[in-house]
DNA sequence: TAAGGTGATTTGATAGTACGATTCGGGAGA
DNA sequence: TCTCCCGAATCGTACTATCAAATCACCTTA
């Protein structure tokens, strides 16, 4: 990610410290501290604080300084915040939450897609599903991940719900995190993969209920996989 | 909502213009335009643009100015963005999307709450459900809405998922919007209300599946109600 | 001891200036 | 006539200096 401008670097640096717990809730820091820590002018420090304030990570008040807000107040859906949490000690919790969110949303998105998707989108969905299964059979990890990401991006976008569609970005980060975490199983070809074809077919034929059910089994499996890894129970994708 | 600072007013003013479609995607405006439009200094205008940029509503580049990004790029989960969309011509679309999101998430939250909720929370949930049904029977609209909001806030918070919990804020706005939209039906006492007791009971007894099912029927009804109103089909809460 | 005021500290806001990057247009060469 | 390169205009970027406003802590006073 290309950090634009000097203030972007300050935002990123502070954001990481916040997400990493280095700066805990309730702590206050003066604008001057920010200036010194990053070697920037007051203007840049102020802009950085403004941005962090808009993400609800901090609140700035005269005479008291910049106080860190509790994590429950943060804009947890902000992609940048998600990224910070994903590269911090709280990484596991963020992964679990994302997996749960995805498990909740994607079945609904699939059902909506079955209602609203146009012919081109239905075709595209089917193509991605086929590419996915082909990559799985061939053991092509790179192609697998990209086809998986593309499939879910199209599916979420086809829901006609902008908020659903926007989850594609974080879903992709979940997928790459999963890849990095377990280096992908040797056997890519598992039941969950074939479900993608079921989803594509159900969407193509307008069967919303079936699309939701098939999508549900995919994301539930992914969620359970993430949870089992985080619990150290190992044996991902066993079922 | 208390707009803090001069720059906050500029952010809000620009945000409304953007959400309202007054400034369309691709349009560019110079920093100087912002200064003149709101009668503020360069610094304030810059801070406002920075905040809008962090919400992904605009992107600022040298030599070209501040360009409006397409709505699909915006941080649609930012509470402020939601509020702007909720007070703009696109209001109906935002309401529909929120209702769909809620319908997807709350069953999952209920299931998680059944697993994780402590005794105090289970009691609190039951209390709110009882207050809700009492208010419904008494025809107390104010008490009804506040009990409803409190119930869903506790439920989402009890899921142990911070991202779910954060949807409580927007859910409440959905509830008040619904109230304003149809002035609440005369008969508050309907099947969906009684389901709240089912949810509370299922959570209290750790029956995740049942909790999800009961919560699902509540939010599905609410979603269909919103959709029927927006389609002009009238007759809300009929079923 | 309690209430009120006053001062010091920190953010809020503005003005002015220098710098850098990017785009547009003109001119030279093929 | 077309292409490529270079310069200039333009706009955002960044810094400094300065004043205003708000708030908390301390001190005075009843």
Assembly state: homodimer
The side-by-side strand order for the widest beta sheet of chain A comes to 1-3-2
Number of helices of chain A: 10
User: Spans of chain A with pLDDT under 50 lasting ≥5 residues?
Assistant: 235-239
What is the beta-strand fraction of chain A?
A: under 5%
Bulk shape of chain A: elongated
Instruction: Specify the biggest β-sheet of chain A.
Output: 3 strands, antiparallel
- Helices and strands of chain A, in N-to-C order? HEHHEEHHHHHHH
Total beta strands of chain A: 3
Distance between the termini of chain A: 36 Å
Residue share in helices of chain A?
Answer: 55-70%
Based on CA atoms alone, the radius of gyration of chain A comes out at: 21 Å
- State the largest interface: A-B, 37 and 37 residues
> What does the average pLDDT of chain A come to?
91
Helix/strand-derived category of chain A reads mainly alpha
Protein described:
Two copies of one chain form a homodimer. The first copy, chain A, has 239 residues and is mostly helical. The first copy, chain A, is built from ten helices and three strands. Chain A has a three-stranded antiparallel sheet with strand order 1-3-2. In chain A, β2 and β3 form a beta hairpin. In chain A, α1 packs across α4 and α5 runs parallel beside α9. Chains A and B meet through α3, α5 and α8 of A and α3, α5 and α8 of B.
């Amino acid at each position: 990610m290309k950090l634009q401008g000097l203030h972007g670097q300050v935002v990123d640096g502070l954001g990481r410290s916040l997400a990493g717990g280095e700066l805990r809730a309730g702590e206050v820091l003066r604008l001057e501290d920010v200036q010194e820590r990053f070697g920037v002018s007051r203007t840049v420090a102020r802009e950085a604080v403004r941005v962090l304030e808009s993400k609800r990570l901090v609140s700035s008040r005269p005479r008291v300084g910049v106080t860190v807000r509790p994590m429950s107040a943060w804009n947890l859906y902000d992609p940048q915040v998600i990224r910070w949490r994903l590269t911090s000690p709280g990484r596991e919790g963020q992964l679990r939450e994302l997996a749960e969110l995805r498990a909740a949303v994607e079945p609904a998105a699939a059902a909506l897609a079955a209602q609203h998707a146009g012919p081109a989108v239905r075709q595209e969905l089917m193509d991605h599903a086929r590419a996915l299964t082909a990559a799985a059979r061939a053991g092509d990890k790179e192609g697998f991940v990209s086809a998986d990401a593309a499939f879910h991006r199209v599916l979420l976008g086809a829901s006609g719900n902008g908020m659903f569609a926007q989850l594609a970005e974080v879903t992709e980060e979940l997928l790459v995190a999963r890849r990095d975490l377990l280096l992908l199983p040797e056997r890519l070809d598992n039941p969950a993969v074939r479900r993608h074809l079921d989803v594509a077919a159900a969407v193509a034929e307008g069967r919303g209920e079936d699309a939701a059910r098939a999508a549900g089994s995919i994301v539930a499996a992914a969620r359970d996989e993430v949870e089992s890894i985080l619990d150290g129970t190992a044996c991902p994708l066993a079922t």
